[in-house]
Amino acid sequence: MSSSCNSQSCDSSSSCGSQDAAMAQQDMAINSSLGKIKHKILVMSGKGGVGKSTVSVNLALGLARKGYKVGLMDVDLHGPDICRMLNLTQKLHDEEIEKNGLLPPMIYNDNLKVISLEYMMENRDDAIIWRGPLKIQAIRQFIADLDWGELDYLIIDAPPGTGDEPLTVAQTIKDSEALVVTTPQEVSLADVRKSLNFCQHVKMEVVGMVENMSGFVCPHCGKTIEIFKTGGGEKTAADYKVRFLGRVPIDPKVVEAGDSGKPYLSSDEDTPATRAFAEVVNNVEDALKNKVSLNVAGAGCDCGGTCSC
Q: pTM for the whole thing?
């Protein structure tokens, strides 16, 4: 009997064998799909309400605006928001399954593809009442069964915490890297430190940390008011020796844009918030470019990329 089952979960060794064969086939599909994607970034935080989905959406759009081919995968299965934030209302129909058995993702524009559980739901207000195994399988299907094609970046929006969803991503996408989002106050930073420890435990590299809601720039006088304090994210990044990607101030237009499905941080408006987030996008791009350059430089030797061999 396979180690993946027991006498209480199946009736015969043949059913276990068929399950193992199906899992092996899905593993092959996952590896094939991931082999066409250069960078995989898991946007995560130990705390809810810090703006992970806002960062995920605008990071994906910012990279797409630079000409990269980008995928955006919403693995916040109990509270998916990506479709609403991008005003994507289309639903998946059986006849849309392609000849090769793959499902078409939602298309936001020429450079951005999106998948969310809401794409497959008849009523998007229905509650998703799932235990771990169903969530794990859904995330695996998001990778194996979607026609992602060739991508430069896959941005993965995770729910808060260090449970099933981020763990499944870490175990399924071995070369994924984390982008950790925090707000400046100590309550948030305490939870974020758990996220950084999670990354250490599962051996996931960290692209860097973003401090969101970092001060409020008054639209009238231009003075910055530190509602949640500021600088905590940068200090935590330094303590854990991870890259600090930037701080994004509070801007009421971010909320309005999210509700209307017209993302604001990656827009053409010239405000402190949009300028700050443009810097975050550039820093993510630079961090991954530099990593690739170091890997190429260090190939075939033990210098770790520090020499020019």
A: 0.87
